Amino acid sequence: MHRFILLFFLLILSSAPVPAFSAGSHLRLTLHRRPESTGISRLEILRTMIHGDRRRHRMISDKIRRRRRVCSVPPSPAIEMPVWSGAYTGTGQYFVRVRLGTPAKPFLLVTDTGSDLTWVTCRYHGRADSPAPSPDVNGGGGRRSKRVFNADLSRSFRPISCSSDLCRTELPFSLSTCPTPASPCAYDYQYAEGSSAQGIFANESATVELLNGHRMKLKGLIIGCTSTSVGSSFISADGVLALGYGPNTFVSRATAKFGNLFSYCFVDHLSPRNATGHLTFGPNPDLFPHSPSARLILEPKLQPFYYISVAGISVAGELLRIPASVWNDSSGGGAILDSGTTLTILAEPAYKAVVSAISTQLINVPRVEIDPFEYCYNWTTAAAAATAVPGLTVHFTGSGNLTPPRKSYLIDVADGVKCIGFSSTPWPGVSTIGNILQQEHIWEFDLKNQRLRFHPSNCTEGSFYH
């Protein structure tokens, strides 16, 4: 798992029979913030998240290198789930509530565009040594206990056999062990920051709610029944919702039903606890028809990551001198959009150009030393009050330019202290646009046309920033 600084969301899916739904409906999930932890400073949380970001990025880079060496559904209604930020809990994810099984039970899952395994803490044939279920999945005060999925009680739970072609050739991190042909397909899934999950693969259903209020079953999902998980990434969640690109992810199943489109909107990471964003499968009614866009690079060797075609970055209106190879995925570079990484991580040539340009504009503001950031400033001084933070724009190939709010790259790390919120990775290496730079925008992934559309928004229905 991964994730690191403040932002994350909860998907909500409700249960009920499957009635007919109207052509104008869609599914939306709301993103919710987790409650504040006590006794943990903002800086300590940021340090933990940045450490996880770096480990996650190393694993992403390793996975990309390995995969580089290898090698029509009509528009429909939509579903929407609320998403909550996990800020100030010591983790850096967004959470969504998903209802799994028959009868459907609610679970709090991490939203992860860099993952291709959806899993839940699970007990099957009584084998899992799992914590007791918690009565609270609504984001109440204090640290919640994990809710455990009892697979034996779900009428729709179907283990995938280890002898199947699906297990042997397609499922991520499946193990070669197969005691009998009917034995379940086992996995050992490793995450970028060092976390891991072990269990068995199965087919299962989720109950989702359409925008028109009707409910339906999303059948044929491949999920992981996790008996053992290791790492701090999962402390506040029951598992992971895989939003990565690939043939067997939650995204592949949901978008096949809802028009090959999904989108999300992350609220500001410092917004009130009750603020929610949303995760939508199907057309997003809040996105403008002619919103800016970028080209999505979707290739089997790059799965499950969403590569985007970047042309350059400008600061204070000036295009920076960054080698074109930094944005070229075929030459060891490229850029991905990742909901699970907090800070934006830039390959070294881009990082040096960006932080140099921003810090030059802030030369009169007193510097302070705060590890692990390279550039931090005392923002309580008169010099800071008299200094304008330079604008930053990410230029995509095509018609899209992302101009994030200044708080998304000059971030608050402590009272009266702001730091340039970028991290670096050695070149050659892949750059990652993290969720802080993505906040307060709707991001729509058009998988059929391989386009990424986006627009500023505070994530409430019908509200945009122009």
Automatic annotation (TrEMBL):
Under PROSITE patterns, the record lists:
ASP_PROTEASE, PEPTIDASE_A1
* Signal peptide boundaries: 1-20
Q: Which InterPro entries match?
A: Aspartic_peptidase_A1, Aspartic_peptidase_AS, Pepsin-like_plant, PEPTIDASE_A1, Peptidase_aspartic_dom_sf, Plant_Aspart_Prot_A1, TAXi_C, TAXi_N
> What keywords appear on the UniProt entry?
Aspartyl protease, Glycoprotein, Hydrolase, Protease, Signal
- Keyword Transmembrane attached: no
Keyword Protease recorded: yes
Matching CDD domains: pepsin_A_like_plant (cd05476)
Q: Which GO terms describe its molecular function?
A: aspartic-type endopeptidase activity
For the Peptidase A1 domain, which residue ranges apply?
Answer: 94-455
Stored Pfam families: TAXi_C (PF14541), TAXi_N (PF14543)
State any GO BP term from the record.
proteolysis
Q: Where is the active site?
A: D112, D338
Q: Hey, which family's this protein in?
A: Belongs to the peptidase A1 family.
Read off the PANTHER family from this record: ASPARTIC PROTEINASE NANA, CHLOROPLAST, OS07G0603500 PROTEIN-RELATED
Name under which the protein is recorded: Peptidase A1 domain-containing protein
